[in-house]
């Protein structure tokens, strides 16, 4: 059973960089042809895909967020990390990490973590 757990600060000030880590257990982030993804849901809105890191290490980003987003990984810790720079209150959301198997879709999700951008 694969489990994902997000961690990071719940409050970030405007213009700062939001940094979240997803710790994966029960499976390696370097196998299964998976895309390890970051998805967020602002209050009252739908899910927004932010980007992903492939099991091979390649990264993919939403065009609307690409200039502010960086996803990396630490294979020794089986973790992948999201950094979102120059945050504004509009980046306030519940942030999820998830495993995407491509055609098979998302099969495992973290519980989500609330991040609020406020001074």
Verbal overview:
The chain has 119 residues and is mainly beta. The protein is 0% helix and 51% strand. The chain is built from no helices and eleven strands. Strand 7 (69-74) and strand 8 (79-84) form a beta hairpin. The protein is globular, with a radius of gyration of 13 Å. The protein starts with a strand and ends with a strand. The model has no long low-confidence stretch (mean pLDDT 96).
Could you outline the blueprint of secondary structure elements for this entry?
Blueprint: E1 3-7, E2 11-12, E3 18-25, E4 35-41, E5 48-54, E6 59-61, E7 69-74, E8 79-84, E9 93-100, E10 106-109, E11 113-117
Parallel strand pairs: 2-11
Antiparallel strand pairs: 1-3, 3-8, 4-5, 4-9, 5-6, 7-8, 9-10, 9-11
